[in-house]
């Protein structure tokens, strides 16, 4: 197995608040890893640090063997190697769905328009949104918007897909269609690191789970084991509170 993404000893503070306190993780090719943990435990900050949206204070991040935490690195070039989907505000309201899905491919990856649109349309067809390509995002349901955001993130063949609580702003009846798409990408072999509070989903889809609390990885293990038999008291408390 080869590590696609390796983070070692990541520290990050906002002012005097230490948010990440020496986090290490490794993501193998085709692996799906879930980050779980209470609100404020540092999941989003970790994801943002990994794709250089936030500078780290200490530690090292390797992507495909390249040290992307080196300050001399081209941060935009690095970000283009990740696909990212957040909880909110993923699509530009003034652009069509097709333009949203192709924008990064064209601007950042310099993909020719025709190729970008062909790829985008194949994804939109796959996710059942081809007929919405010329619409603006506000004509789509929240679940459709998130699926379009996932299509945008995946259509440039990112080395790693980072997903940050992508269903937590959705009405409950729309969650399933988004999770089903992630499940499909996972079974197609995408390499995914996802912060999620959907525990059943994490258990079923993730290969490994990391439980974060207070900016440290308190426990990690194969998803089924960690949920069935958490070893650490803090993990047990967290999981017990949810059920
Ligand atoms: P999670 O995603 O697990 O809920 P976050 O990474 O969003 O956790 O937040 C971890 C901690 O960092 C929280 O205490 C949050 O308030 C703080 N934090 C996150 N981003 C910032 C920021 N830009 N400035 C100051 N504090 C922040
Ligand atoms: Mg978060």
Core attributes:
binds magnesium ion; amino-acid transport; membrane; nucleotide-binding; 6-stranded mixed β-sheet; ABC transporter; 4-stranded antiparallel β-sheet
What does this 3D model show about the protein?
Pfam families: ABC_tran. This is ABC transporter. By secondary structure, this protein is of the alpha/beta class. Helices cover 37% and strands 26% of the residues. The protein has 9 helices and 10 strands. Strands 6-7-8-3-9-10 form a 6-stranded mixed β-sheet, sandwiched between helices. Strands 2-1-4-5 form a 4-stranded antiparallel β-sheet, with helices on one face. Helix 6 links the parallel strand 7 and strand 8. Helix 3 (97-107) crosses helix 4, helix 3 runs parallel beside helix 5 and helix 5 (142-154) runs parallel beside helix 6. The longest helix is centred in the last third of the chain and has 16 residues, at 172-187. The chain is globular and about 50 Å long. The two termini are 35 Å apart. The model has no long low-confidence stretch (mean pLDDT 95). The structure holds adenosine-5'-diphosphate and magnesium ion (MG). The site of adenosine-5'-diphosphate has 10 residues, from helix 1.
């Amino acid at each position: 197995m080869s590590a696609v993404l390796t983070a070692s000893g990541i520290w990050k503070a906002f002012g005097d608040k230490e948010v990440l306190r020496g986090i290490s993780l490794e993501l193998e090719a085709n692996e799906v890893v879930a980050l779980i943990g209470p609100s404020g435990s540092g999941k989003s900050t970790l994801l943002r640090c990994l794709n250089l949206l936030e500078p780290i204070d200490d530690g090292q991040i390797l992507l495909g063997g390249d040290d992307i935490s080196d300050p001399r690195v081209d941060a935009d070039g690095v970000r283009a190697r990740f696909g990212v989907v957040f909880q909110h505000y993923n699509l530009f309201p003034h652009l069509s769905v097709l333009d949203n899905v192709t924008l990064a491919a064209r601007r950042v990856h310099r993909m020719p328009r025709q190729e970008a649109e062909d790829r985008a349309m194949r994804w939109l067809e796959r996710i059942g949104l081809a007929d919405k390509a010329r619409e603006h995002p506000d004509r789509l349901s929240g679940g459709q918007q998130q699926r379009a955001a996932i299509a945008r993130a995946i259509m440039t063949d990112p080395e790693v897909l980072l997903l940050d609580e992508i269903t937590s702003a959705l009405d409950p009846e729309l969650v399933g269609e988004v999770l089903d798409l992630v499940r499909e990408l996972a079974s197609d072999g995408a390499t995914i690191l996802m912060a999620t509070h959907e525990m059943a989903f994490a258990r079923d889809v993730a290969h490994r789970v990391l439980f974060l609390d207070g900016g440290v990885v308190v426990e990690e293990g194969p998803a089924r084991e960690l949920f069935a038999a958490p070893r650490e008291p803090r993990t047990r408390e967290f999981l017990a509170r949810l059920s």
